Amino acid sequence: MIVRAWWLTALLLTAAPSAAHAQIFFADKPNPTFTLGPLFVRAGVDSKLGRIPVDVMFSVVVPPNESVADVEQDLYLLWPGDVVGDRKLGAADPALEKDIAGRGFTVIGGGRLALTVRNLYQVGQRAPAEPLPGGAPFVTFVREGGALGLSSPASWIRIPWNPKFANRVYLIDLHMDTRGLIKDKAGTWFEHTFWGPRHRLTLSFNEIRHRAVFPMYFQQRDRVVKLAEDPAQLIVNFADADHLKIDEMFPQSARRQLSETLESTETVSLFLDRSEGLQPQVLTVQFGYFTRLQSWAPVLIPALFFALGNGAGVLLRNVAERISKRWTGRVEFGRAKEKPRVRTRGVVLEPDTLRRIVPGVTTYEQVLQLCGRHVEELSRLTTPDHRTLVYRGRRIVPRRRRALSWLATIEHWDAEDHEVDIELERDVVRDVQARVRRSRLSAPEPA
Description:
The chain is α+β, with helices and mostly antiparallel strands. It has helices at 2-15, 68-71, 94-102, 189-194, 213-219, 297-327, 351-355, 364-371, and strands at residues 24-27, 35-45, 52-61, 75-79, 82-84, 106-119, 130-131, 136-142, 154-159, 170-179, 182-185, 198-205, 232-239, 244-250, 255-258, 265-271, 281-289, 331-333, 343-346, 376-379, 386-404, 407-425, 428-441. The radius of gyration is 46 Å and the shape is rod-shaped. The termini are far apart.
């Protein structure tokens, strides 16, 4: 029977929304002799990331030498955050608000939380949880003033005693909707666009470093309720596991697995060590939800860069060619006194070279030595002893318009087409004719 009860406990823990902050339990009287166990803190996280539902499930363990009447008293839970009450259960407890205000805190809200009990031994049929009338009243408060100014909110929850608390057949469930359990992690627009935003959920037990929590603990530290030897666990159930990415978990002892009862749900859990005393025990999970499109990011991003790289290469090349055609030759660098840079194609024979060619004296080989061997030869079948050597060349001279230090602009280009015909008879020069055609260009010719 006990085995069945524990299996039902595990089923209840994984079938409900999971994991969040549980802090410190207090008794109504000093030096409590009873303990709490088992203790499970769970909350549900989904892709909407709105209010996080939290369930604190526990049972009271009475010492063997005492009776239930000896330990009967209200319990208190100090929660380091803002909680949202159930309006159907009524308004907050004025006495609770007065007590918190009398301790020097500022009350900013209040209400009542759902409080239910569940019979662990009803295995055959899953009966719904039994609600306790009136629920659990609470107040939310902050600490004002001081060097650090306004603190973040905390909640003081009173859990009215019920005889079923000490009955090992029952498990008590305190349900609340919480705010502020999940913090957004900073990231670049690139990470948010392609990988989705990242969030951090921090769960802790016996955490008293909160500015609004520590004074409450310090005033009532003799009323702290300790954990029993029964299991105590922090649990986080992440819904929609198909679109969930968990980046980090701390500590390393935290366990991650798929839920055995909930569909598409991933569970992260951490067992609490009761030997740690009031030492904070923290479970941190960094996670994010991604869309169907973002799930293809490892494939789409390289493909996008490949496409953009090829497309940008073609675009830049075309732009560079247009700019080059438009501006090449229109700007020159050099000293203003320097002569413009002249472009020459082919063979341009200077007048001094032509004067060295003497008809009737200069031979064919001498012409090639003077003018070069890049020449065009014309001959006729009817006159085999006659042939003509043709030298053609083109010279482009830029005409500067303005010069500023080492920079000068070009107004236009003067083009000169040179053509020299050298007639030979029996390998001796007979006649030389030189022609020069000049024109003006508005744009430079390609190199």
